[in-house]
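**Protein fold record**
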Amino acid sequence: MLRELVAATMREGEDLPGPSRAERGQQVIAPPVPIALKAALYEAFRKSGMSQRRLAREFDIAESEVRRMLNPDHATKAATIDRALLQLGKRVTVIVGEAA
């Protein structure tokens, strides 16, 4: 359900909601890694103020590839999103914790 909320927000071109704090005794739920990466790219792209055309020129890729990278329903390799985020001044880090 969280994945679809994030994806729908991206499809509509809206601002992503911030995470809420877990109350005592509540379990923290994180979105699946692929949608979390897409959401990070989407947010960094929106904050950059760049057009998709300009981002494509800066990456030296087709504009259609930028559209696919920003599409929450299109599979994009994590390494590709990582490079795009780096170009936008962001860095991907991964934290692995104990399963609940």
In short: The longest helix spans residues 33-48. The helical segments are 2-11, 33-48, 52-59, 63-70, 78-87.
